[in-house]
Write a sequence for this structure.
């Protein structure tokens, strides 16, 4: 059992009290009569220094086995440190080695390892500074998400992981089935889903939004925060096949109130990590992105830019920048366009609204012009899209017409249409990709490094 974390012990003033730490050896420096160990237990970025000398029982033997990666339990006196670099250190009285780590084979010997290499050892990489700091930031950011919504009276809603309807993103859905794949039952050439577990075709959820709308249209304000799955073949640094999404949904709320909420939310979570995770944030600012703290402080202070898609297209055309994919009204914005808006034209977060209907989902509210919908995407510097949302179509006839126009079957959406039949209200919401938020606040470039065990196209080892 761990009595006190290293984080707690480092905050004590050293007065010769006896303490006990449990952790893993990061480094060992040996001299003739004594040695220094650096121990880390994951409670914070810093290590605690332990002085081991000949007074330690079985000194020589213990010292040989105290190699990088070994797990130890050290009991000793907390004293002011003689050397620079740390205020206190532990003078070991007793050391128990729970598990040695063979220096011939333990992979984390060097000080710096490439992210690619660390991904191959996802079972050991949390013992590095970067992944440890990431895990603590991810934890803090989760708390920030809950705190933001709880403070505003939102109800935390658990939406299903197995989706019964195929309302959105059918192409990106992972199928869930108990049918024997080597001998699929068929009838008239078609797969016979009546023999499947749910007696229908099901998949892993791509979004909790539609179910979220049901509860928002009863409880007022809800949010979901859970795993989301998309069979994305796109091998980018911003897409995972399994990621966590935060999706608030608000009744009696239009696109403008939705934008206010999205802006307040992003500012809140950025401020939260700046305030609560200083040590780890300084680490990322030093080693990962030297503009990180400036960027985040700017986000907390700045008023986000709000422009329509049509204005964004004009601005991009006017900029004269050479893009790989030319901009033109009607085409979706590519990440190079999103980055150009946030990094060169405005130099802060940009909310783009009113996208052409053909590039957005069927449920978004139609504008008067009949051509654009009340979509809202939030783009941030260095990353591009972090939030996608909209005001939802709340008019029964318009929604049904849109479903038919897209060649969908209204019968598949009977319950969704019912929300527009009984007590329909203007309502809105958005989805924040949680890993994109962790990328944004840590500066880490690749989304595979901000989730403990990334699932991407062709990769699910751990
Ligand atoms: P993109 O254009 O970047 O693929 P999207 O338009 O498909 O995003 P939405 O369906 O609006 O995204 O989902 C809401 C948010 O979820 C996005 O803004 C993004 O932050 C996040 N997100 C979407 N797909 C992924 C993914 N495959 N991996 C990680 N996060 C994702
Ligand atoms: Mn996508």
């Amino acid at each position: 059992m761990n009595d006190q974390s290293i984080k707690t012990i480092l905050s004590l003033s050293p007065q010769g009290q006896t303490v006990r730490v449990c952790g893993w050896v990061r480094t060992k420096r040996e001299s003739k009569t004594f040695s220094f160990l650096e121990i880390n237990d994951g409670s914070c970025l810093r290590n605690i220094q332990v002085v081991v000398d000949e007074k330690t029982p079985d000194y020589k033997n213990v010292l040989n086995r105290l190699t990088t990666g070994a797990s130890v339990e050290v009991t000793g006196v907390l004293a002011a440190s003689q050397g620079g670099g740390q205020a206190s250190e532990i003078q070991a009285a007793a050391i128990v080695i729970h598990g040695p780590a063979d220096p011939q084979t333990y992979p984390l010997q060097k000080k710096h390892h490439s992210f690619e290499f660390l991904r191959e050892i996802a079972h050991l990489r949390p013992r590095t500074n970067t992944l440890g700091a990431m895990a603590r930031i991810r934890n803090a950011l989760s708390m920030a998400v809950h705190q933001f919504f709880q403070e505003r009276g939102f109800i935390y809603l658990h939406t299903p992981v197995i989706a019964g309807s195929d309302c959105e993103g059918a192409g990106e859905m992972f199928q869930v089935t108990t049918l024997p794949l080597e001998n699929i039952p068929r009838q008239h050439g078609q797969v016979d889903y009546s023999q499947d577990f749910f007696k229908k075709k099901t998949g892993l959820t791509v979004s909790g939004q539609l179910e979220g709308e049901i509860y928002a249209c009863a409880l007022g304000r809800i949010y979901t925060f859970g795993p989301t799955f998309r069979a994305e073949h796109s091998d980018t640094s911003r897409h995972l096949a399994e990621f966590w999404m935060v999706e608030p949904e608000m009744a009696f709320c239009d696109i403008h109130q939705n934008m206010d909420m999205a802006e307040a939310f992003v500012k809140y979570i950025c401020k939260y990590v700046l305030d609560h995770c200083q040590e780890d944030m300084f680490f990322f600012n030093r080693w990962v992105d030297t503009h990180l703290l400036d960027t985040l402080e700017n986000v907390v202070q700045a008023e986000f830019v709000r422009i329509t898609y049509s204005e964004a297209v004009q601005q991009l055309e006017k900029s004269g920048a050479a893009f790989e994919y030319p901009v033109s009204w009607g085409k979706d914005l590519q990440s190079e366009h999103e980055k150009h808006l946030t990094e060169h034209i405005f130099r802060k977060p940009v909310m783009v609204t009113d996208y052409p209907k053909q590039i957005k989902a069927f449920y978004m509210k139609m504008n008067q012009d009949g051509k654009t919908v009340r979509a809202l995407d939030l783009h941030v510097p260095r990353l591009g899209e972090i939030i996608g949302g909209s005001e939802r179509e709340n008019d029964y006839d318009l929604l049904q017409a849109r479903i038919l126009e897209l060649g969908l079957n209204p019968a598949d959406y009977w319950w969704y249409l019912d929300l527009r039949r009984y007590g329909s209200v203007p309502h809105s919401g958005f989805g924040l990709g949680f890993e994109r938020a962790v990328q944004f606040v840590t500066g880490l470039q690749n989304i595979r490094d901000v989730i403990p065990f990334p699932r991407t196209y062709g990769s699910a080892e751990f």
